[in-house]
Design a protein that fits this description.
Layout (H helix, E strand, L loop, with lengths): L1 H8 L10 H5 L2 E2 L10 H16 L23 H17 L2 E12 L3 E7 L13 H14 L5 E7 L3 E8 L2 H9 L13 H12 L7 E7 L10 H10 L2 E8 L3 E6 L6 E6 L4 H9 L4 E4 L2 H14 L4 E11 L1 H18 L11
Parallel strand pairs: 3-4, 3-6, 6-7, 7-10
Antiparallel strand pairs: 1-2, 2-11, 4-5, 8-9
Helix pairs in contact: 4-11, 5-6, 5-10, 7-8, 8-9
Length: 351
């Protein structure tokens, strides 16, 4: 109770208000008033000169042995010193020290994005190092790191399609989900691109975001699923969703590692671009072909530029005045100084 009472009523009674760091942390509303501090020494010098000329003199005869110098005589300067402090504090109060707090608030309407990632057997081909799937996961995580305020979801597909992570702004949660993807994530074999688009559309159709985007990463043609990619893309377009398609991999002889024997083998890889091109066209997006990691990273950077979120920034500035602290100190010094002038400490002949 007493601590609370002290903090509420006597918080000003602390030397911290006169620390250099305290003064450096202020903004001064009437900064020119601080120049009057320079006049304080001049004021007391003029007063001293006037006292030497005009002060009253009382002639008293003393024997040398009767004269004693005592240290207590310096106390006669204490009232003047307190008056100096009082005047300095009153000037500080007039200058109105303030602390300014600036709070920046950022807001964005955001974009809802679903990443559709192919996890079929062919994504383990090693024309990307260590393989297509691991590079796609790594680049996708970098893409997530580059977004702000957007909700992003994750759909994985092979012979079937599943939602791995729902739309979220928790990017660490999303990246953890990307890390969890393995070649066995979806048991059914094949590449169900149409099913992947359908799952992504179901995730986005209830969204109120100003922009809804599907980014589909695959290395082949549609070979599974009960819905064709063109029909699925048309359904996405009905909900004003934009579709970007990325074909990953290159043609020719490509290494892969046999997961049963661990032996490295080669296979002849062919590229089927027509399906992904058609999907991008229907979805009013773009189709990209990426034969290596660098081109895949560049594509994601371009998509990042295409789908920019508009970030609105507002600043809220609050000012806290501290003039009353120095006004209180000034009155305190003034009262104490005037009281001392009424005691034995005062130099009667000068005052």
């Amino acid at each position: 109770m007493w601590t609370k009472l002290w903090n509420e009523n006597f918080f000003w009674l602390s030397p911290k208000w006169f620390f250099p760091n305290t003064f450096l942390g202020y903004e001064w509303y009437n900064a020119p008033s601080l120049y009057f501090l320079l006049a304080i020494p001049l004021l007391f010098i003029l007063r001293r000169v006037a006292n030497l000329r005009l002060r009253q003199r009382l002639q008293v005869a003393w024997l040398p042995k009767q004269l004693h110098k005592r240290n207590i005589r310096i106390l006669r300067f204490l009232p003047d010193l307190l008056m100096t402090f009082a005047l300095a504090c009153l000037i500080l109060a007039v200058a109105r020290p303030q602390k300014v707090n600036t709070k920046v608030e950022k807001s964005s309407e955001g974009i809802d994005i679903v990443l559709c990632l192919d996890v079929s057997e062919s994504m383990l081909l090693e024309d990307f190092q260590p393989n297509r799937l691991e590079v796609a996961k790594d680049v996708a995580k970098n893409f997530v790191d580059g977004r702000l305020y957007d909700r992003i979801g994750l759909v994985v597909f092979s012979g079937e399609a599943y939602t791995a992570k729902p739309l979220t702004t928790d990017y660490n949660f999303l990246k953890a989900g990307i890390d969890e993807i393995t070649p066995n994530y979806v048991e059914a074999s094949g590449t169900a691109i149409g099913s992947a688009l359908t799952v992504a559309t179901n995730r986005l159709k209830e969204s109120n975001a100003k922009s809804k985007v599907i980014i589909l990463i695959s290395d082949g043609d549609n070979t599974a699923g009960s819905i064709t990619p063109s029909v699925a893309a048309s359904l996405s377009a009905l909900f004003t969703m934009k579709i970007y398609t990325i074909l990953i991999g290159r043609e020719g002889e490509v290494f892969y590692t046999d997961r049963q024997t661990g032996e490295r083998k080669t296979t002849k890889n062919t590229i089927q671009e027509k399906t992904l091109q058609e999907i991008a066209h229907i979805g009013d997006g773009k189709y990209f072909r990426t034969p290596d990691r660098a081109s895949l990273e560049e594509v994601f950077q371009r998509i990042n530029q295409y789908e920019k979120s508009e970030i609105k920034e507002s600043k809220k500035i609050t000012r806290q005045d501290f003039y009353y602290v120095y006004l209180t100190w000034g009155m305190f010094f003034l009262v104490i100084g005037m009281v001392l002038k009424s005691t034995f400490i005062s130099n009667v002949l000068e005052d």
